[in-house]
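FAQ
Q: What does a multi-component entry look like?
A: The components come first, one per line:
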Amino acid sequence: MISLSTTLRARRGMMREWRLHALSIFSLAVAFVCFGASLLVVTNLRALEDRWAHAGRASVYLKDNAAADDIESVKQALLRVNGVKQVRYVSGQQARLDFGASQQERATALASLPAEAFPSTLEVEVVPEMTDAELVDMAAKLQKLPSVEDVETYQAWTERLSRLIRGGVAASALLALVVLGAVLAVVGSTIRLALQRRRTEVEVLKLVGATDRFVKGPYILEGSVQGAMGALGATGLLAILFMIVRGRLDGEFVNLLGLQPQFLPWYLVTALVCSGAVLGALAAMGSLRKLVLV
Amino acid sequence: MSRSEGPFAFRPALRAGARFSREAKDRPILTFESVYKSYRSGSPVLRGVHLTIERGEFVFVTGPSGAGKSTMLRLLYRSETVDDGRILFLGKDVARLRDDAVPFLRRNIGVVFQDFKLVPAWSVYENVAVALEVLSLPTRLVRTRVGEALERVGLSGRGNDLAGVLSGGEQQRVAIARAIVGEPALILADEPTGNLDPQLAIDILGLFEEINEGGTTVVFATHDRTLLEVRPRRVVVLDEGKALDVPQGIAIDSDDHYRLPN
Ligand SMILES: Nc1ncnc2c1ncn2[C@@H]1O[C@H](COP(=O)(O)OP(=O)(O)OP(=O)(O)O)[C@@H](O)[C@H]1O
Ligand SMILES: [Mg+2]
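Then the predicted structure of the entire assembly, as tokens:
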């Protein structure tokens, strides 16, 4: 074991100046939490989009006066369309019962709603591979049938969701810039300070013929560790917040959206920590570059 | 970067007698050729210094405060650069050395300062070992060589003490051990006894003389006259920007100026 190796000098430096390093890691974690939170929102919106964009369904609202024969022939025609998996008839009464079941506490108030408030529908289930264009095409054809009042393909919702996701991605990109700035500023100044405090050490190393690489190695490692720890700390903090929030909303959330809220996937967490490490190292290198060692 | 190839690279000479090149063996180890240096324009510190030092010599460099003794040494280990002239060390012009070759130059020169320049938070062992660890020598070799160096300066068994808690004299011994542990061809000492009491100063001088007897060239900058009188030695006086060789004894006038004896 080389007693003054890069890792050892870095570890010692960090232990001796742990307050400085802790402060730096904390500041970085704050920046990373903002970024991570926006990634978390985008991740969940994406999941929502995946769940609903290819929801694979459409509702055909039938006219009140549609005859049972007509309805049956629409149903048969639909079943012959390529990609349609299943067609289910839901009468107005049935719809009202279903609605009442999912809104139990308000069931009494809703019981007074007239049956006409719930039109009869044909719930069409299509294969997920069916494109939006095909779905729209099918809806347009259905619209022309005399017994059909309206067709809902849920596309408007998908578009709204997409817009929301685009907004989320833009916000994430902006926050990524903030994180970049924070890492450069925080790690840069921490390293400069650490270097200042270890001036004698640097002087001695240069005096005995250490190369710049040998002298600067520990500082780059320290910057990298700071970045990685900041990102890791932020992920941990987010995980705790996520648990708390999820614990509160679980039941309603899942019913409403049809899916469980999910945490950042492992590859995003890994990417976050790695980019923290790389950025930290780069920031340290940047702050050392301007430094003239004699 | 290659350590041994290229006109500006220095091969680390680990042994005192190590030859940089065949011809260099017969040449003086160190030559100053009309070296000029000024920190501020209009007030040059060195104004055409000529000086030749042979292998194995022990040379005192003296002169009034501000004469440029430290400057001369700093030019030599390239912590400063010359304005004009050449400084040949082991046949290479130090002044024209590329920046990335400077570490290799410094591995061939041991430097000792008045203020010791130790890392107080490191142990005595580490303060000495650092000079070998920058060479990436194997640990076992580092351990034995540091042990030897500490023994030579009379500090064996003190390796685990923190450098910061030692007395001034002991700290200077650690600094000397660090300077000699790589067995450089040249040792530079800039007022190494300036912070020590007179008896300790003479002990430290003795240490440098022992090192010199082992074949290492020593350049010792001091304005402590008592040290110059301990033994007849080659003395170089630096005054008014020039170096003058004073083989035996120096006359000092009332203005504290050094003059050649008539
Ligand atoms: N880095 C510097 N910048 C500007 N001026 C300097 C610098 N270093 C030294 N000088 C000036 O150069 C002159 C020579 O300084 P130097 O330290 O070489 O003298 P010295 O002979 O070692 O003196 P002393 O015996 O007091 O140690 C002094 O006038 C000093 O003020
Ligand atoms: Mg001086």
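Q: Is there any commentary attached?
A: Sometimes. For this entry: The mean pLDDT of chain A is 82.
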